Structures are given as C-alpha cells and as structure tokens.
C-alpha cells in the first residue's frame, strides 16, 4: 500500500504489541491509543490520516475519539469497533472458530495458522483462494502474532460504537465481499451512523484486501487520500 501511495505521502508505520518485530515487555493496563500517540509524537506528526485494518481499525477509531485534534480523516479496513454488540457467527465461521480453539488448546500453532489463513485471508468457504508470495507473507506475519508473548491486558476499555456520531472527520470504510458477514454489516452500519462516512465493499476480497494487493482497495485508498492531500 505504501508503494501505491508514492513518495508524495509521508507514511508512518509501527507494530502493535504482539505483532511484527518490535520488542516489548508484558504490561497490564497498556494502551494501544497511548502507544499510537507516542509514535505520532516521536515522528513529530501533529495531525494525520489514520489507516487501520481489523484491530488496527479499532485503535484508529478510539484514537479519533480520544484525540480528535490528531486526526484529519480515517481509512478503516474491516475494522473492529470497541463496544460493538457481540456477533452471531455464521455456521461455517463458528465451525472454523471451534477448530482454531481446539488447535490452540493443544498448541498446534501450524494448524492455527492454516485455519486462520482460511478464515481471514481466503474468506470462509474459500480455502486456498489466495496463493503465492502474498500467502507466504500472511503466514509468516500471522505466525509471529500467534506465537508472540502476551502483551498483557489492555487498559483501553472504550465504547466507540455508541459514540461514532461524534467523529466528524471524513471516514472511508472498506470491506471485502468475502469477509465475515457481521464485519461487513457492522462496517455498513457504522458508515451510515457517522457524519461523513463512505462505505465501499470490494469484490472478491476477504478480511485483508490491502494485503492481497486488491487494485480496487488500493485505488480507493489512494483516491481518498488524494482528495485530502
């Protein structure tokens, strides 16, 4: 995605605790929002367009509510949303979830990784849809995440779901048509509840369309940023 945006856009990326290669110590009460603010401060970035995927989308939303002065727009890719109602899972998703739990219980991390690739990267019922180097990249990144040291309990007990209408900056919601049903429905509902929301469903993509290199996802993000650049 950074390559698609080009050199005209300054991009700041960082690893959330338990993702990537950044080292950390377990700490109960740690805050994803505070971590993000620390990165912005260290990068001397006063106001940014925050882009977040999945749980990163949750952090971006929480940041916009806690520090609205730091955010000029949001790009949310299949975001989790703090305080959202518990979903009723589709039967296939529920079965995959149970398989993942069973594999995790016996510490079969290879099986967990394979099953999560089916659930999140391919999309439920589309196992093996995405192959080649990008699948290898997902498996490598996910292997790091599922084997990472527990960072501790987060102290951010926020309820963004009931306060989405307080976010006034432009927001682009992107979801793949093959993603979990409740994620697609929740993003559509969230886009309708904010003051300046745009919802785009991407064909033939699952939970991580940007990682797949979906042209429609990358184009939508680039166009959204260009309008605000």
Automatic annotation (TrEMBL):
Signal peptide extent: none
InterPro entries (UniProt xref): AB_hydrolase_1, AB_hydrolase_fold, AB_hydrolase_sf, Epox_hydrolase-like
Domain AB hydrolase-1, chain residue ranges per copy: 4-214
Alphabetic keyword roster: Hydrolase
A Pfam family of this chain: Abhydrolase_6
Keyword Translocase: no
Gene3D superfamilies membership: alpha/beta hydrolase
UniProt keyword annotation of Hydrolase present: yes
PANTHER family, alphabetized: AB HYDROLASE SUPERFAMILY PROTEIN YCLE, MONOACYLGLYCEROL LIPASE
Protein name per UniProt: Pimeloyl-ACP methyl ester carboxylesterase
